[in-house]
Design goal:
With 133 residues, the chain is of the alpha+beta class. 27% of the residues lie in helices and 26% in strands. It is built from three helices and seven strands; from the N terminus they run ββαβββααββ.
Length: 133
Amino acid sequence: MEIKYTRDLDHNYLVIETEQEENYQWKMIEQNAPEGLLKHSIRRIDGKKFLYYEIDARQNLSNYFAVKKLDREDMQRLVRALCEVGERLADYLLGSEGLVLNADTVFIEPNARRFCFIYVPEKTGDRSLGQVF
């Protein structure tokens, strides 16, 4: 999975190109995404489909913990956020395999110290929490 970053006049985005066929998962996250997932939009450009995740002032874990030491409180907050988003996904009949868990795709809002995740429908792989750190 190739990740790109772009920005427009108002927002910064993480962009992932996808070839997945749309199904109910796509419609669910596009119209009614659970709390804890980054806001996103689906864009079609030159016959290709892209997921644009709005990251704005958030930092990915690679950058955030490069300058700040990971402490016990941060680790607890991350695990709690991951459990909560997993429960919300189940409430929306979305499988947890769509969560992309690595240090470049998990984001933190530095001021609130709240974690946000990206969800790629029918995505598999990149699942190890060990890869996050």
